[in-house]
UniProtKB/TrEMBL annotation:
Annotated Gene Ontology cellular component terms: plasma membrane
Pfam families: BPD_transp_2 (PF02653)
Keyword GTP-binding: no
Molecular function, one GO term: transmembrane transporter activity
Membrane topology according to the record: Multi-pass membrane protein
Transmembrane segments: 31-50, 56-76, 83-100, 106-128, 140-162, 168-190, 228-247, 284-303, 309-328
UniProt name for this protein: ABC transporter permease
Domain of life where this protein originates: Bacteria
Location of the protein in the cell: Cell membrane
Keyword vocabulary terms for this entry: Cell membrane, Membrane, Transmembrane, Transmembrane helix
Amino acid sequence: MNSKALVNNKSWNGSLKALWKKITLFRETTIIFIIVVIGLILTILSPHFLTTDNLMSIAVGLSGDGIVAVGMTIALVSGGFDLSVGSVTSFAGVIVGALYLAGVNIWIACLIAIVIGMLCGLANGIFIGKIGLNPFITTLAIMGIARGGAYVLTQGYSISLFNVPKSFAFIGHGTILGLPFVVVVFILIASIGDFMMRKSEVLRKVLYTGSNEKAAVMSGINILKIKICVYVLLAFLASIAGILVAARFNVATPPTGSGAELSIISISAAVIGGASLNGGEGTILGTVLGLILLNLINNGLIILNIPVYWQDLVNGIILIAAVTIDFLTHRNINKN
């Protein structure tokens, strides 16, 4: 390729990136508009929506999912995804409960749970990045292992965590500046993640890997290291979420995280917010907005006394719409 062609190619790639940034900004602005409109409609339809208790309930409810969704966004940007995070979330909570009942200090139990969760992420990263296995099959297998481990430890029963130290109870029920601790943790993780995605050289390499893996290799990026770090980070966040959920409900149980359901929620939120299933695009802010939209709709269904069974149907419709928009957008960009 001669120098003139190379310059033209770089210019074309730059134009595509600039176009995608405009599309992403438009999508985030559109989601904010939709959130405001839905909020206004629910305020008119129900006096219970715009109350402190209800809004706080929405915030607490989405925080656990949101912590996982931050990691899922980074995984999608890298060109991968993870179906095992829901099971890793429940596994972490169960490990904490089982070790605490066995007499282990609660914080040491939390540390062990996080390490085991990260080992699940490490396994995903090695099998996908080093061996080259399909992410769907690999993370599905790890999902089964983590879920099975949770059931083996509990024999299918729930582990009560009512008699835990006050310091541990605080992370589930305490507040900081009037906000529940879990919400504060989510805001911090989302804020740091969004800043790092935009400014950090490390996460920029994740973006380059997802955009064009071959080009990333040629530019000297260690994609194996990137993939392993991404899956370990995602498992770390899933473990943190599992511990917070266990502390919040005072119980550790295998169904927490609902297996693939939590993965679907986090993927849905990321895709709605502008992340691409093809990798290379996505923002934490967009994911947070997508998550708020999903939870707002689900909350609306509840306060309007619409059966909870409609939630999955509505969420599925929203997801297929978001994926379709993502597909059509990329197809049009590729055609041009």
